[in-house]
Write a structure and sequence with these properties.
alpha+beta, 273 residues, 39% strand, Diaminopimelate Epimerase, Chain A, domain 1
């Protein structure tokens, strides 16, 4: 007799946007209890989105839920858009009763998401300030352009003179995957009134050539631009083909950054494993 499949609910949410087909899509799978990381990885690979988030209810008072994120290739230490997507599912699909959700994570500590009066969800994340390093030829060759400055935190961050420089990048993904085993940020001042800076985020080492809108990269972007522009409240645009906007704040005294945006449900369904 054939064994019956185990079923799980799954949601797909476009994060950092209020319209479907924009922002960054993430899958969200609520779990009663953790399942094998091998199965979670296979689900993420099957979804073939930049991230799939899994969460379980916490059994203690410090946090409300435990949260993990998987790309099609591996588990990651921090993901912004899939955290926003998970919170969106809890607030809008599963009727979470509060205004704040506390997610416990394996490597990023406690992450909070607050529902604001305007409907945006604000993420509170650790900052990851980059240290300036020398520009090296392998990076220039992989990006196909030379930045004016290069920093390194978890990710490399290449700073360019103009938004047009960032928009024109057409990296060699195979070469770029050898530069950093997570990702490479490209950024520049914004040429659009009301926006402070733009960025793109390339993650070929994790099976994501270009991520549409990225929360974790802004953990490095926000401290840099806050210092450079001498302001702590910034509006950011990620200029991928799908595009997205993030309202950002730098809390330097706490070593934290916040970023806020909308989420919108694209689909709900059931998966069979």
């Amino acid at each position: 007799m054939k064994k019956s499949a185990t079923t799980y609910s799954m949601f797909q949410v476009d994060a950092f946007t209020s319209k479907v087909f924009y922002g960054n899509p993430a899958a969200v799978v609520p779990l009663a209890d953790w399942i094998s990381p091998v199965i979670m990885q296979k689900i993420a690979a099957e979804n073939n989105l930049s991230e799939t988030a899994f969460f379980t209810r916490a059994d203690h008072d410090e946090v409300d839920f435990h949260l993990r994120w998987f790309t099609p290739k591996s588990e990651v230490d921090l993901c912004g858009h899939a955290t926003l997507a998970a919170a969106h599912v809890l607030f809008h699909e599963l009727d979470w009763y509060g205004e704040i959700i506390r997610f416990g994570t394996q490597k990023a500590g406690v992450l909070t998401v607050t529902k604001q009066l305007d409907g945006k969800l604000q993420l509170d994340f650790p900052s990851r300030s980059g240290k300036e390093i020398n520009i090296f030829d392998a990076l220039v060759e992989a990006l196909g352009a030379r930045p004016v400055q290069l920093l390194l935190a978890r990710d490399h961050m290449a700073v360019f003179a103009t938004e047009a420089d960032v928009a024109a990048l057409a990296p060699d993904m195979e070469k770029l995957a050898k530069i950093n085993n997570v990702g490479i940020i490209a950024t520049a001042p914004s040429e659009q009134s009301g926006t402070d800076f733009v960025s793109r985020f390339f993650v070929p080492a994790k099976g994501i050539p270009e991520d549409p809108v990225t929360g974790s990269s802004h953990c490095t972007l926000i401290p840099y631009w806050a210092e450079r522009l001498k302001k702590t409240t910034l509006l950011a645009r990620q200029i991928s083909p799908r595009g997205g906007e993030l309202e950002c704040h730098y809390l330097s005294d706490k070593g934290r950054v916040t970023m806020a945006g909308h989420g919108v449900t694209f689909l709900t369904g059931t998966i069979f494993v």
